[in-house]
Design brief:
This protein has helices at about 30-35, 90-95, 115-120, 125-130, 160-165, 200-210, 275-285, 295-300, 335-345, 380-400, 415-420, 425-435, 445-450; strands at about 1-10, 15-25, 45, 60-65, 70-75, 80-85, 100, 135-145, 150, 170-180, 180-185, 190-195, 215-220, 230-240, 290-295, 320-325, 350-355, 370-380, 405. It has about 450 residues and is an alpha+beta fold.
Amino acid sequence: MTDRQDVLLQGWGRSTGSRARLRGPLAPEALSELVSGRPAGGVLARGAGCSYGDAAQNAGGVVLAPATPSSITVDVLGGTVRAAGSAPFAQVLAKVVPEGLLLPVLPGTSRLTVGGAVAADVHGKNQRADGNLGHWLESVELLDGTGQVRLLTPDQDGAAFAATVGGMGLTGVILAATIRLIPITSTRLRVTSRRAANLDALLDELDAAAQASRYAAAWIDTTADGPRLGRGIVDRGDHLDDPDHPDDPDGPLGYAPARAPLAPRLPVGPVTPLTARAFNGLRYRKAPREHTGVQGLSEFFHRLDAVREWNRSLGPRGFLQYQFAVPDPAAGLLGEALTVLRRAHAAPFLGTVKRFGHTGLGPLSFSLPGWSLAVDLPLAGDAGQARLRAALDQLDRRVAEAGGRVYLAKDARLGRAAFEAMYRPLDDWRTARARLDPADTMRSDLGRRLGLCP
């Protein structure tokens, strides 16, 4: 069991940090006693630390990392899995894939935990077709802020269920979740990649791909300008119907993440506007105009796992990820965002565009029908950071005016006024949280920054 005082915790972007008392894993009785005792500074459950900002930090309080031991139970006939909040997706996949089943929503890393995924109401490349993880949840087992265990379903205490899904861990500790699975006959997918010469072409191609295939996403050149603004590569994928061969390395219907090399820890940031432009240009030029091939689960879904701890290689200052979603009429904001960042001399080195089709279940869920852009932005010196933050503040206002949102699971710097403009109204969420946590025991740095907790 972890029981350490004054531990520095950071998000994946390594741009923020705060110290907390680290506890866990705990037995159910001990966990309930800890939460009901209302420790100074409050309590927060932390998963694998995959949130880019300060969502899994609790300065001066207690952080459960993990809250409970990992456990996974598969109901093959019912097509569901019950997994502890501390269970990583990789462990869940290793259990369900051999049974011909798959988690219905797979973000870009298999490292995230089930509890973290529920708290962020995560999405994947199939958001347009299948929605968020919350749309596939049968139940959530929650230890609320009083130390009481509750079983939440869409029909049984639906208000508390909606507040918890996407609630960023501020309604209680997610002990376990039961998730509906999808059937598969193969661990391979047929993937078609096509280049698009500019933003209009990229969005048209991505829209068509998201309608024709279950999975679709686009890499976007974050540094191109002029007539090439928004050029990129659109990937679409569908599961193969033919069963895997018994002699495949993973066996028939097996899942084993590939061994990934460890990224070096660099003393200086290697990404500058010049190197970002060179990297993006080379990637676009090397890509064929169109290519169809077969990829495995890890290769297609979990490209962020290709290098372990790759966030260490971006220099000691870390980086921000800025991800927003806007409705269809505001699609032009994607190009505007890239232009604003270029004029601020930022160095966005990685960009992704997705087509969304569903609104998230919870008041704090991120997704809405429309378009999503995510860009990774290295942090430079003080002057560069000031320019970057001013540019992002400008984009926050534009996103809010368009009826869009910034993704809280990726955020490290959104202001309270902009947040409230994006996520209004929050009366239902605050009412549910007050009932689940009347003493404001569940707290986080993100929650304090946005006025969601004291």
